[in-house]
Amino acid sequence: MELTSLLGLGLALLLAPLLSGIINRVKAMVGGRKGVPLLQLYIDLGKLLRKGVVYSRTTTLFFRLSPLVSVAALVVALGLLPLGGWPSLIAFEGDLVLMVYLLGTVRLLTVLAALDTGSPFQGMGASREVQFAVLAEPAFFLAVLALARASGTWELAGVLGGTPLPGVTTILVAATLTAVLLCENSRIPVDDPNTHLELTMIHEVMVLDHSGPDLAMILYASSLKLWLYAAIMVGALLPVSTLPPAMVLPVWLAALFAVAVVVGLVESAMARLRLLHMPRLLAGAAILSLVAVFWG
User: Fold this and answer.
1) Does residue 179 lie in a domain region?
2) Residue 163's pLDDT band (boundaries 50, 70, 90)?
């Protein structure tokens, strides 16, 4: 069991940057453009790891440790998930609560590192990040609670990929997780990961002072976070326990990459919403997940 669990975690660590490449390729195809290579993020990570690091004199040791600790927290969170149909590396009753707290820790570290620079510009991005988190985190936790209530367990191994959920619960949870995934990963319509407009950036502005290997760790942490949320969505909607053992991993990976395709299509079809509309979107997602809790 431990070997297969390590294989699932290793697969996530290796293929996580591929999701961003799929999203970019889908957006390029829809827009009729050539676009960047599928493995562009791997190329960028390799270049950044070979560069030096520049630190502002106003920053502290916390600013330097934040990227590394964020990656470590996400690796632990991935270790809690049953990836690819394989059992999770770390499993215990109530581990889904730890996963939620680990994701909150990553956000806290990013926000505090942005504030550590002393820049009001990065403070603006940190303020927006926290504002959206107030609504996104309850929506996500309620969606996980609905899954736990429907499956009858507080262990992620039983919540994700277990028995099929009721149809209404599946629809409500899917809608909630889609909104949360777009918000937590700074995707359109919540945020534009490719924007350079100062007044519209949220996540991008918080990491402007990072460079070299530190920026590589931040980009890699973002890809791990996207993989984690996509894996949660696939685990919640795809009952892998009903599939033949030989088909579990291929179907699971296909579903995971399909999530990236859907994100690319959403970003191609929608524009970034105004900041004033974001609370309505996230509040609506929280309401849907709350209905799913009582429905299940």
Assistant:
1) yes
2) low
How many CB atoms sit inside 10 A of residue 138's CB?
17
Higher pLDDT, 198 or 19: 19
CB neighbour list of residue 54: distance below 8 Å, 6 or more residues apart: 211, 212
**239 vs 114: which has the higher pLDDT:** 114
Is 7 among the domain residues? no
Q: Which is nearest to 114 in space by CA: 62, 54, 180?
A: 62
Burial of 239 (0-12, 13-18, 19+ CB in 10 A): middle
Strands (E), the chain: none
How many domains would you assign to the chain? 1
> pTM higher than 0.90 for the full model?
yes
Domain of 70 in residue numbering reads as 18-152+161-295
Q: What confidence category does residue 93 fall into, taking pLDDT thresholds of 50, 70 and 90?
A: confident
| 4 in a structural domain | no
Closest to 66 in 3D by CA, of 80, 78, 53: 53
